[in-house]
């Protein structure tokens, strides 16, 4: 059994509504992501936000990052639970843009340069070297993005966000366009990132239920409730509680397969 406790709220939404003209996109979205503590471990949080195409995942994602203002309601961040501002949440977009004319090393350095931490060039080199080693990118540091596979570029983009020091990272469709081996590597990377620091919190927006749920400790279903306009988090699955979180080989577990079937029915 995985002993854990959930402590202070790190990211929350209260009564979030979003409307464009007459069209209600999001309705009464409420959530609380709490700091998970596991004894003897640095355990971050990983939430999978799952929903049908066009339901409003990207809009909610942008509201969580402070990039879109909701029509009503507030998203709050950090231990102080202040209203989120742009820049407080790192974003790994679907088409993870890297600077093509810069090496992987220099792309990663952008993350550190934006972190606000004062480091000498030698210290930056050491930090980037350590991360590259941990995340299997050491041999690629002097290459350019075009010389890497899609999955490797994806990993660089994720690590770039980690290096900015953001504890909150939103990832938009991190598995799309990757072959199955790369998907496994990205999942392993997300697990590692979530365990780098106690407060690290990843929110993964995805259509890919199996992969997103395999790495998550919580799954949110964004969908419409019968007879109501606009999408809301209509179901939350707590995978810590059901013992399905933090298990690298979870995908073969019968209970996990049942969960996936149940989630599909909810969509
Ligand atoms: N600026 C806008 N003005 C009006 N409607 C918008 C605007 N931006 C998005 N929408 C609408 O909001 C709804 C939700 O869009 P959103 O991109 O969040 O969906 P999604 O769940 O991310 O879809 P997908 O999985 O296909 O990316 C869509 O119906 C879209 O047409």
Automatic annotation (TrEMBL):
Listed SUPFAM superfamilies: P-loop containing nucleoside triphosphate hydrolases (SSF52540)
Q: Which top-rank group of organisms is this from?
A: Bacteria
Instruction: Note one Pfam family from the annotation.
Output: ABC_tran
Q: Entry's InterPro entries?
A: AAA+_ATPase, ABC_SmlMolc_Importer, ABC_transporter-like_ATP-bd, ABC_transporter-like_CS, P-loop_NTPase
- MF terms in GO: ATP binding
Note the SMART domains from the entry: AAA
Domain ABC transporter as annotated: residue spans: 11-249
PROSITE patterns in the record, alphabetically?
ABC_TRANSPORTER_1, ABC_TRANSPORTER_2
The alphabetical list of record keywords is:
ATP-binding, Nucleotide-binding, Transport
Q: What is this protein called?
A: ABC transporter ATP-binding protein
């Amino acid at each position: 059994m995985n002993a854990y406790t959930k402590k202070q709220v790190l990211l929350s939404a209260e009564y979030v509504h979003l409307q464009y003209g007459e069209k209600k996109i999001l309705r009464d979205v409420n959530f609380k992501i709490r700091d998970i503590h596991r004894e003897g471990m640095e355990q971050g949080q990983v939430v999978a936000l799952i929903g049908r195409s066009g339901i409003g995942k990207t809009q909610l994602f942008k509201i969580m990052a402070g990039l879109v203002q909701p029509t009503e309601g507030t998203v709050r961040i950090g231990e102080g639970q202040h209203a989120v501002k742009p820049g407080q949440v790192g974003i790994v977009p679907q088409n993870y843009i890297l600077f093509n004319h810069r090496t992987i090393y220099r792309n990663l350095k952008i993350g550190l340069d934006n972190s606000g931490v004062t480091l000498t060039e030698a210290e930056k080199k050491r930090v980037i070297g350590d991360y590259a080693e941990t995340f299997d990118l050491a041999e690629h540091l002097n290459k350019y993005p075009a010389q890497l596979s899609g999955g490797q570029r994806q990993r660089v983009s994720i690590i770039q966000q980690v290096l900015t020091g953001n504890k909150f990272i939103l990832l938009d469709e991190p598995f799309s366009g990757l072959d199955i081996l790369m998907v496994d590597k990205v999942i392993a990377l997300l697990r590692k990132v979530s365990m780098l620091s106690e407060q690290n919190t990843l929110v993964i927006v995805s259509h890919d239920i199996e992969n997103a749920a395999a790495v998550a400790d919580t799954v949110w279903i964004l969908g419409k409730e019968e007879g109501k306009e606009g999408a809301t988090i209509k179901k939350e699955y707590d995978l810590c509680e059901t013992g399905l979180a933090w298990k690298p080989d979870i995908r073969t577990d019968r209970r996990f397969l049942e969960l996936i079937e149940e989630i599909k029915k909810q969509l």
